Amino acid sequence: MGIKLSTEARRANRVRRQLKKVANGRPRLSVYRSSQNIYAQVIDDVAGHTLASASSLDKDFKGKKGSDIAAAEAIGKLVAERASKAGIKEVVFDRGAYIYHGRVKALAEAAREGGLSF
Question: Of the four listed, 47, 55, 63, 96, which is most buried by Cβ atoms within 10 Å?
Answer without folding.
Answer: 55
